[in-house]
Every structure is written in C-alpha cells, then in structure tokens.
Amino acid sequence: MELFRQWLLGVIACAMLVGAAQQLCPEGTLRRIARFTGGLLLLLAMLRPIAALTPDALGWDEPDYREAVARLEIELEGEREKTLASGIAAEVEAYIEDKADSLGADVSAEAKVEMRAGAPVIERVTLRGAYSAALAERIASELGIAKEKQVWIDE
Fold it and tell me: What are the helix and strand counts (H, E) for the chain?
C-alpha cells in the first residue's frame, strides 16, 4: 500500500508542476512545447512503477516456476501418450471388427496398446467370438499383430 501511496503522490506532484509550468509560459509555440514536454513527464511519472518491477518484487521465484513448468510438461506428455494409445486402440478395434464383418465372423475386439519410448505398441488383442483362421491371418498380415498376441475367447 505504501508503494501505491508514493506513486500517487509522485504523479500528483508531477501534474502540479507541469500545470504550473504551463501557466507560466506565454501563449504560442513555447506553451505548446511546455504542454508536450509536461505530458511526457507526466507519462513517465505514471509508468515509473512498471520500470521498477522485478521478478522478486512480483514474488516470482524462477526456480519454483521452472519446476512447476517441468511438472506440467511431464503431466501433459503422459496425457498425450494416454490419449494416443487409447485412440490407436479404438482404431485397431474398429478395423478388426470391420474385417470380421467382411469375413462373416461375429467377433468383438479389444486392443491393449502401450507406449514404449514415446511410440505406441500393440501388446495384445483380445477377440471375443468363434475363432476364425482367416481373420487371424489378416490381423497378422495387415496389422502386424502376431498370432501369439491374439487372444481368442470363444463365447
């Protein structure tokens, strides 16, 4: 509050001095120059606190800020990987179910995707329905999911 009080007193004192200087100047060019110069001085007086701002004055602790940014980056990267993995799993499931429909098989798929070194890897596909060798072969050849990673559950 003390800083605000000092700032306000400085602006008021500057305004009074500028006003007095303008009244003392004769009409004409000299008064216009005094008015312009006084306006600049008043602007500087109003902006003086901004020039004095430092990160310490704002309570900004740079190491804490950097640490918070690093934590947020890690958190956002985790969210990005989770979203990417779930999106790829949904696409793989839809693709397999579409292929099953085209082969006349009644199969529902559930893919498990994990992130390794920032890249999505399909760990396992669980297929619910009667085993279809043709579908298993298509999954292996078109999606690159080995038959060992295909878990068939006959329902």
Answer: 4, 3
